Amino acid sequence: MGALHNGHLNLIKQAKQQQSKNTLVVVSIFVNPLQFGPNEDFDRYPRNLKEDLEKLKELADCVFTPEIKNIIGKEELIKMDAGPVSKVLEGKTRPSYFDGVLTIVAKLFNIVQPDVALFGKKDAQQLSIIQQMVTSLNFPVQIISIETQREPDGLAYSSRNKYLNSEDRKISLILFKTLNTGLEEAKKGSKITKILEEMKIYFEENNNLNKIILDYLVVVEAKTFRQIEEEDLVGKLFYLLQPLLGELD
């Protein structure tokens, strides 16, 4: 959506590596109003198109920057329904978010007609829903997921990191360290309940002045995002932590 950071630029560099002869790397920049709910930060979401285009000079063959009136129009008659997986976790508190994301992603796919599209793993639930849309609706595009890019101290790159003041920036590191606590516990072969318990203990002990509000801390099955509580599941799991810190969501 713009305000490009190193995470975005890494996606584009990865796209360049996928590029073959007679193909183009196309980057879209569009702050999508359909994925913002009431009282969210659409109006003040970081935007700097001139700076973004400068960063893309040597990376992208084409940059698509549509205006809202051209890609949505005055009246959007048909929208995508992201299905059951969009009603849990992130979708529970932001009920129209994933429908809005899919509507614009589908439009971009139809306009650009890409062979390959790259998305970051940071927004794991969004990535899963986009993959399901491509499969369900037979979009002729290959989705490639790219590992989350982090700053040297572990904070994931995000355009909204600009909202953090210096104190919040320091406190935010508890999130990465909480996830690492779960990872280390998982390496020991601990059960899910034990892993979550240790993560919660670490979080609560280090959440200075209770500045971070924890929306959820769960383990889910990677494809369906069904919350896992049993101990006998075999398959790929995601450990999801959703914070609210200062003005960062």
Automatic annotation (TrEMBL):
Transmembrane segments: none annotated. The keyword ATP-binding applies. GO terms for biological process: pantothenate biosynthetic process. It catalyses: (R)-pantoate + beta-alanine + ATP = (R)-pantothenate + AMP + diphosphate + H(+). Its EC number is 6.3.2.1. Pathway: Cofactor biosynthesis; (R)-pantothenate biosynthesis; (R)-pantothenate from (R)-pantoate and beta-alanine: step 1/1. Pfam families: Pantoate_ligase. One of its GO terms (cellular component) is cytosol. The keyword Nucleotide-binding applies. InterPro entries: Pantoate_ligase, Pantoate_ligase_C, Rossmann-like_a/b/a_fold. GO terms for molecular function: ATP binding; pantoate-beta-alanine ligase activity. Keywords: ATP-binding, Ligase, Nucleotide-binding, Pantothenate biosynthesis. Belongs to the pantothenate synthetase family. This is Pantoate--beta-alanine ligase.
